[in-house]
Design a protein that fits this description.
Elements: H1 8-23, H2 32-45, E1 48-49, E2 58-63, E3 66-76, H3 103-118, E4 125-133, H4 141-147, H5 150-153, E5 158-169, E6 173-175, E7 178-181, E8 183-192, E9 196-197, H6 207-218, H7 220-223, E10 232-240, E11 247-248, E12 251-260, H8 266-283, E13 287-296, E14 299-301, H9 303-317, E15 322-324, E16 343-351, H10 371-389
Parallel strand pairs: 3-4, 3-5, 5-16, 6-15
Antiparallel strand pairs: 1-2, 2-4, 6-16, 7-14, 8-12, 8-13, 9-11, 10-12
Helix pairs in contact: 1-3, 2-3, 3-10, 6-8, 9-10
């Protein structure tokens, strides 16, 4: 594909970088080698590394040679605790760690965009803040970036980001105004019983039985206590209890998440989870403790920024590449940057036309190499379009 901003040498560099990062994925808050790679690449191209930096993640500033506002472009850099199962020649070399959510492509695309933008410094009316954020998968990396104080010193007028998606055909660009991703809350449930021998369950208080009934009862929150017209999902994704086939354990831990289109339901759902766990556990002679770990508001795309994004995408790739993105029940801590300035996120397709692509967070997830330079081109065009419009200045 021929690009307007991404030259052949930059395209080659982007693909080399995405391969390096994919081979060496790192979990949230442990992205040390990824951080070093990003910092080295930014320094090489002449991007200023800001004085205040997170422990992992990188903040860089490109000052244009023309006056104007500041915009921020953000990419997430962490991987997931997933053991890769793809046939691609570029595979994770870290056991049980994989870029199963496309953050390697997000990071490489932003680095590629920085390379291209550095070559156009004389044409840039303002500044571009590059935010390479850790720990998106923990839902708390945005807090780390905000706590550095970078946005007090360099107040951006807008934030832009991308997320690749295998349920959108490759090369298509999803744009949506308003809410695009869900509010999120994660939780941990500790069910406490009394251990004993598997052959004499009457002498124990089995927390596994209680946990099984709690898990089942929690689904009533969605099926019976939520308006069917309102998008909502609750999933238990981790259960741990016991260590032997003949030992009833003392306790069981479960972890899960719930998502909704609005964050106003969170207090109600928390109360429902707590009441279910307490009453069902008590019915089985156990007790339960509920801990709510992390929350994020829904991601809401600013309408003005969506118009800018649409204009940039259409100019670069044509109207036929753009589709109206459906609401997605996944969540993104990119939503926290809305506290600072309006935000906008593209959803970029990497899926096969027949719909057979593995989903995100799946061991078989795969995105084609050309995705990263495609996204880099999109980010460059969007940043330049936004700056040239002045964003209200």
């Amino acid at each position: 594909m021929e690009f307007k901003y991404i030259s052949e040498d930059v395209e080659k560099s982007i693909i080399e970088i995405v391969h390096k990062i994919h081979r060496n994925p790192e979990l949230s808050y442990h992205e040390f080698e990824t951080t070093k790679l990003i910092a080295a690449e930014l320094e090489k191209m002449g991007v200023e590394l800001l004085e205040k930096q997170p422990e992992t993640g990188v903040l860089g500033l490109l000052k244009g040679n023309l006056p104007g506002p500041t915009v921020a472009i953000r990419a997430d850099i962490d991987a997931l605790p997933v053991d890769e199962d793809t046939e691609h020649e570029v595979r994770s070399e870290n056991q049980n760690v994989m870029h199963a959510c496309g953050h390697d492509f997000h990071t490489s695309a932003l680095l590629g965009a920085a390379m291209a933008l550095c070559k156009k410094r004389d044409e840039i009316p303002g500044n571009i803040l590059f935010v390479f954020q850790p720990a998106e998968e923990k839902g708390s990396g945005a807090d780390v970036i905000i706590s550095t104080g970078v946005f007090e010193q360099y107040r951006p007028k807008a934030f832009f980001s991308i997320h690749i998606k295998p349920d959108i055909p490759k090369g298509k660009i999803g744009i949506r105004k308003g809410p695009i991703m869900a509010a999120m809350c994660t939780f941990r449930i500790h069910i406490i019983g009394k251990g004993g021998h598997g052959a004499t369950p009457h002498l124990a208080t089995d927390p596994i039985i209680a946990a099984a009934h709690v898990l089942d009862a929690l689904q009533c929150i969605r099926s019976r206590w939520t308006d069917p017209a309102q998008p909502f999902t609750l999933s238990i994704c981790s259960i741990h209890g016991g260590s032997a086939c003949n030992v009833i354990p003392d306790d069981v831990y479960m972890e899960g998440t719930f998502r909704s289109t609005v964050d106003s339901r969170e207090d109600t759902v928390k109360k429902q989870i707590t009441e279910v766990c307490d009453s069902v556990s008590k019915a089985h002679g156990c007790t339960a403790e509920c801990e709510f770990l992390k929350e994020a508001p829904p991601l809401v795309n600013d309408e003005k920024l969506a118009d800018i994004a649409h204009e940039a995408a259409a100019e670069l790739f044509g109207e036929d590449r753009i589709l109206v993105q459906d609401f997605w029940m996944a969540s993104e801590d990119f939503s926290f940057y809305r506290e600072i300035a309006p935000v906008f996120m593209y959803h970029v397709g990497v899926g096969k036309e027949d719909g057979s692509s593995a989903s995100l967070h799946n061991p078989g997830f795969f995105a084609p190499d050309e995705t990263a330079p495609f996204c880099a081109e999109l980010l460059v065009g969007t940043a330049l379009t936004a700056l040239k419009k002045g964003l209200g200045d």
